[in-house]
Amino acid sequence: MLLLFLWWLLTKKHRRRLGFVLIGMFLFFSNPYIIYKITIAGQEKQRILQPAEKYETGILLAGFVGFEFKTRQGFYGSAADRFIQAVRLYKLGHIKKIIITGGSGSLWRQQYKEADFVKQELITMGVAAQDVLSENQSRNTYENAINTKKLIDSLQLKPPFLLITSAMHMKRSQRVFAKAGLQTVAYPCNFSAIHNPQLFWNSIIPSYKAFEGWDIFFKEAVGLLVYKITGKA
Question: Fewest CB atoms within 10 A around its CB: which of 86, 105, 126, 162?
Answer without folding.
Answer: 126
